[in-house]
Amino acid sequence: MAKKKWDAFLCHASEDKTEFVEPLAEELRHLGLEVWYDKFVLKVGDSLRRKVDEGLSGSRFGVVVISPDFFRKNWTREELDGLFTLQMEGASRILPVWHKVTKADVIAHSPILASRFALNSADGIKAVAFGLVERIKPKALKLGHTQRRVQDAGTRFAEQLAEVDSRLQAEVVLSPQITPSLHDLSVAARPGIVASILQDGMRVDLIARDPADYNKNPITGHVTFKPEALEQLSAVQKKGETVTLTDEVVDISVDLFSQLFPGATSGGKVIIRPAAGAYVKKLNFRVTVRAGEQFVQYDRIEFTIERPGSEEVEMVSTAPRLPLKLRLVVRFKDRSCNFKVTTSHFGHEIRDILKADLAVSILAAGGDIHLFDLDSGRNIGSLEHSQADISEGREALSSFIQAAYDVAEAFAQPLHWTGRLNEDQYFKAACLAEIVRKGTLQLPVKSMRLKASHEQLEQIRACISQNRAIGFQRPNFNEADSIFGTRFEVGTHYVYFVPKEIKVIDATASSVDVEVEVWPQGNVVFSFPRFTPPSGPAGESLVGDAG
Q1: 413 within domain boundaries
Q2: Which long-range CB contacts under 8 A does 274-280 form with residues at least 24 apart?
Q3: What secondary structure does DSSP assign to 214-248, as a single string?
């Protein structure tokens, strides 16, 4: 079958053009349909009969606008007969649109048309256009027109809202991520929003133009629950929990919505949470973590209340930015609490990290949290925890933090956690900490490259045969000289070891020095005068290293 040139042929009476047919044709074309409409197609000098025949045969669908004037015209009846003929041949399909007629009117003139499902102009041009497109070319709505449809619906709703309650204005937000989920509304709304309506791709927020005036006579309604809902509702008041009720809901009725959508708000799901702004959301505490004589104190930590209740409150530390975050669930009746501690070291200075790590260690060992309310000057007291959520296996991490802290303190340098903790960082921190704590370091070294004179080369060989140690001085300690990219210059140091094998790498007759590779027996000892003055070389002295 040959491909049709037009999606739809508009069959209508000329008397209906201005009021209905032409706006409908424009809307269909805007929605992506190829429409045969005489104003779009006919040009000066065209044969009307030939163009109509071409339009009838070249259209996939025939849209017939049935009106009182339509039935009075012979011309429109001929077009309709042509559409019926094409439909019988399987070449076209008739889609009726009633315009200012009743079913009885249509039956009186064409029982066949009356038996067909029809759209009605009384529903509005946009509604008729979308109904036709959904039948003729559904993909047109999916390829970019859905958003416009939603926007038009939002605009119409805003106009309707102005008629029902002029105190409110509608703000339409369009986004493909918006879905009709109550959970999207369960978060605290921003000030001024009194209600929100969701559908796919659109959110409509109802905003009070004058909040003070609106509060004198707010939106009212009622919800009927089953008795078993009472226990769940009490959790909102006592524990500040958000409760979702579905089967427990008998009926929902909101006065405003009943006017906007008659009969549309009955039954459904209700999410109830504590009212935003009904309680103090920010609290400032002096926080002391204590176990016996050991304690850590923070002079001020701001907590944000996330779940308020008359018997139980959940709050989380939010400021200042610290390496640890405390989440407390406090029960007023027995002054007990559950808490969860999380740490994030990145970007923090090592001294702050050590303090946070000590606090976490105290809590992990069963310590208590003591709170003092800075805003009211009231001593809240100690909160004994019945349950703590602290990650295990912290020994290696705490050891690294302590080592990095000792190094930063010894060099009086700041050290920020700016990288990923790995084996290399563990090794460097452990080496540098050993240096600053003891002044010496022992490491297993596979081999070392050195530069020595020919005389020293013979001394090394003698040490190998006699099993004696050699020693030499180096300006730089390259084995471990930084943590997270921060360099720590340990300065000139001494190296001691007992050689077991030597190999000449590069030697020429004219060269004063010889480059050799030496394999030590056991560990190599490094001594750092900056931290511990050396007692003197314990072996034959060599000059330099090839390092």
Answers
A1: no
A2: 274/236, 274/240, 274/307, 274/308, 274/309, 276/188, 276/189, 277/191, 278/308, 279/305, 279/308, 280/305
A3: HHHS---EEEEE-TTHHHHHHHHHHH---EEESTT
Q: What would the two tokens of residue 87 be? A: 């439909």
What token pair was written down for 236? 């909102």
Q: Which residue ranges of the chain lie beneath pLDDT 50?
A: 1, 42, 44-48, 91-92, 143, 186-188, 263-266, 387, 509, 536-540, 543-547
- Count other Cβ atoms within 10 Å, centred on residue 401: 23
Is the CB of residue 372 less than 8 Å from the CB of residue 297?
A: no
Contact 196, 203 (CB under 8 A): yes
In a 13 Å sphere around the CA of 142, the CA atoms on its Cβ side amount to 4
CA 413 – CA 405 distance, rounded (Å): 10
Residues 199 and 115 in one domain: no
pLDDT tens, residue by residue, 60-86: 888 888 888 887 777 656 666 655 665
Are 522 and 453 in a shared domain?
yes
- What is the tens place of the pLDDT at every residue in 440-455? 999 999 999 888 888 8
Q: Which structure tokens are listed for 258? A: 């009943």
In a domain, 75, yes or no: yes
Domain of 68: which CATH number?
3.40.50.10140
For residue 488 the two structure tokens come to 């720590």
Q: Give me the helix-helix angle, 125-136 and 22-30, nearest 10°.
A: 50
d(CA 203, CA 324): 37
Helix 74-88 and helix 48-57: axis angle, to 10°? 30
Domain that holds residue 255: 151-225+251-272
Look up the pTM and report it.
Answer: 0.56
Q: Cis omega before residue 533 (within 30°)? A: no
Question: Alpha-carbon distance 374 to 285, whole Å?
Answer: 5
Which has the closest alpha carbon to 296: 350, 377, 353?
353
Backbone angles phi, psi at 511, to 5 degrees: -85, 140
